[in-house]
Amino acid sequence: MSLVNVFQLLVSGIAMGAIYTLTAKGLFITHLATHRLNFGQGDFLMVGAFASIGLLVAGVPAPLAALGVLVLMGVLGFLLERLAIRPLDRLGDRAGAYSWVLTTAGVALVLQNVIELVWGKSTQYAPPLFSATRDNVIVLFGVGIFIEEAAIILTAFLVVGAFYWFLFASRWGKAIYAVAFNPEAAALFGIDVRGVVTLVFILASLLAGISGVLVGPLVSVHPHMGLVFTIKALAVAAAGGFSNPLGILVGGLAFGVAEAFSNYWDSAFGDLYPLLFVMILLAFRPSGLFGERHADVR
After folding, report:
1. 213 φ/ψ sector (left φ>0, alpha ψ -120 to 50, else beta)
2. Which residue blocks in 170-192 are alpha helix, DSSP H?
3. pLDDT tens digits, one per residue of 228-284
4. Dist CA 201 CA 159 (whole Å)
5. Which phi and psi (to 5°) does residue 170 adopt?
């Protein structure tokens, strides 16, 4: 393998790793505030990808198309919390500790079928977002880099940076951590706990929507791609550590790079090897690379 190939695989791996990171961040923030996960997170990404394709093919400019996707995903996140999560909270212990697994997975199946009714089961290809054609290349130190991949990496990192600012520097971010630590105490301090829960599901949906917009030009889009992205996002979050947002970033980039190299060596089973590595890692370190060694006592 030449040095040029190594560099190109690194760029491709970082691009996909950034997408996995954004998707896993959605899992992280819902788990942080509610100790629950949206098992349809990948299907929300899929909906975002199809919505982006539809708007771009209709001639809508890319910035307006992305804005339209974000509005749609925000509404879907709001409905997910209202229809699949809040009724379970009202039932309390009668609903079962893990009933949210079935409700979020059920929403994912509904989304898959709706997309199939509109688009069919065939594979779709998204138009490029940041360049006129897919094969526009810039040469850096003698190595060709696709403009689309470079722009997607930059955009994804800007979103990750904005997410970190929101989580650690904004009033709402501090409210999320307060609710995560103790919802009853947060309510006594005047924090709208239910509003925070709704917010985290909307944020998770927005992150999935951004991931869908960005991933469209990189991979083929089909109605059943969501499950694969959900599994990979779970693997990234588990490997990095669900309690550590920085660990999820490292885990996502490492997973994407490992996937790129494993697909280069074995195109038939390349996606399998990073998942196997994560399984072996979790067998020896269940809390992930950057997770807490001790049980969460919140």
Report:
1. alpha
2. 171-181, 183-188
3. 999 999 999 888 877 778 888 888 899 999 999 998 888 777 788 888 988 898 888
4. 17
5. -90, 160
